Amino acid sequence: MIKTDTYNLDHLSELEAESIFVIREVAAQFDRPSILFSGGKDSIVITHLAAKAFYPARIPMPLVHIDTCHNFPETIEFRDRLIQELGANLIVGSVEKTIEEGRVQEETGMNASRNKLQTTTLIETVEDNKFDACIGGARRDEEKARAKERFFSHRDDFSQWDPKNQRPELWNLFNGMHAPGEHFRVFPLNNWTELDIWNYILKEKINLPSLYFSHERECIKRDGQILAYSDFLKLREGENPQMMRVRFRTLGDLTITGAFESDADTVEKIIDEVAATRITERGGRMDDKRGESAMEDRKKEGYF
Amino acid sequence: MSDTNITSNHNGLLRFTTAGSVDDGKSTLIGRLLYDSKSIFADQLEAVEKASKQKGLEVVDLSLLTDGLRAEREQGITIDVAYRYFATPRRKFIIADTPGHIQYTRNMVTGASTADLAIILIDARHGLLEQTHRHSFIASLLGLRHLVVCVNKMDLVEFDENKYREIVSAYRSFSSRLDITDITFIPISALNGDNVVKASENMPWFGGSTLLHHLENVHVGADRNLQDCRFPIQYVIRPQTDEHRDFRGYAGRIASGVFKPGDKVVALPSGRETTIHSIFSGTEKLTKAFPPLSVTMTLDDDIDLSRGGMLVRPNNQPDITTELDVRICWLDEKPLNLSTRLVIRHTTQEIPAKITSILYRININTLHRDEEDLIVEMNDIARVTIKTASPLLSDSYRNNRTTGAFILVDPSTHATVAAGVIR
After folding, report:
1. Residue B102 above 60 pLDDT?
2. Which fold would CATH assign to domain B319-422?
3. Based on CB atoms within 10 Å of each CB, which residue in A8, A282, B119, B409 is the most buried?
4. CATH number 3.40.50.300 is the correct assignment for the domain at B6-223
């Protein structure tokens, strides 16, 4: 509900209005736009905003899921149900297929993950479908390399990001002009924080995968992190899966997403927990801990 | 429910910009606001402490929090506008933190374009400097209505009231040439936190509020233009499904004014009159819509209206013109060339345009006009005239920060080469 008794908007309504404007701008400026859908809360919020932006029409662009095939089964079930509800079009890019066809080599070793491999599949999916814009759910507050991200972020013919040569972005005037083969990554949630996302989920009563809420699951402890036990995880010596009461703060691959012990089983309790937490959201992700510039390097190569 | 919950951020959103060099304590001030409002996380602080030690610094260098790119850390400079976020129980804040050294004008203009308020930092030992003039002028050019002048490093002048009064009076006499009505002065010490979040015990002579208290309470709602109704059409929604066979909705963001169902409106550029039937935000029907809401409107009549068009009120219309008198900030590495064909992007309009004459350049340090040297290079501000291939639906920037602003794009390189405001 938007309160119109005064002319002042609460900050979530203002953020919503900005994001809807950006999403509509993508539909208006590009020929083959798409929404990158990971199954995580941010991309679920994006999808919710897109449905609002074009109501009563359907979302006029496909949802694209880059599937590492190491996903939590809950994520995939949730994705398929949402797609059906929205009557949206889903395109799946499979990392498994990229590996089978020999275009990337699977990482080996204890901390092997498919996080980096996703980039190749993502770029291939963009090229195969000739997408000229991909909407993503990234936010500036997630990581310091993202604090300087534009709403319309230009990618060259090789899907690369050049942080030193970004187009200046003023007011709400977005310049999406590009040469054939180039594309844009667009980030409508740039100005949202993790807490804004949760408060919006509460306000709009948005459904989320059960993984975000406290539940019992088999886990192992490794390098100070709690990881979900699954067939994809190679156990080290001395590691014993044990039942724990956990939830996830972000949803990446089974192999890299850290869980933490929590009793928060409602959105309200999660908000209280997030507000009190002293560790950033991505603090639980092994992929960001591969060095000071881990995120910047992956972004330059074409990562989300 | 926790303090930081939405239900209590009742003063909404405040976007502000800070500008300055490393030396005047800007990073320390931002660090102080983030730190004292508990917006820095434990792992972030730990990373910054570690990095400061590696660089051999004795104190924690809070600029490392904002300098996110590898090149910036390596060279110890800030390259680009960085956006920082923090919230208090009263308000959510977005800081556009602009660097002081490289491409400062371009970055400051970018940061100020979306801001409601600017913080100007003055070192109490040095008083007004060139950069004080520069920052203040750009804030004024970009139509900011609120300035906060922080006289910083008061600890280094023994918290001397006279020193502070001198600076305030010097700034007042300079700022009379600017177009900013609300200027607030606060003596602070960002390093020690005096008057930033907590009132200073060292300056009992100061009766004003702390910086954070001011930021939490400054009223920016009145800055929005609620008089002149302007609704630029962004996208036309036609579901073409059985359920909504004849639905035709005009989607966009209200630039200014208040729209209600039943209002008589004129569709521009056709000039056809009709009436607003309904206004939607998602599935919800609104009884009125105002800036900055994104809505969808349906009309009583089927008329010719598409992206780039605008709905306005019959008795209050924008300028419809192909000739513009503007001030621009040049953003491109190649200097302005009058023969280059450009595209102007203005609200949702995109029209071929060219710059027809350069009237003068403005020296942003002295505010003097230079009518002799008319070579406009990156970071220059100039007054020019523009001709467009078809009419622009515009207002003066002073009255309308949405319909008065534009960018120029070079269609051969796709670069955004200039940002401008209409007189």
Report:
1. no
2. Elongation Factor Tu (Ef-tu); domain 3 (2.40.30)
3. B119
4. yes
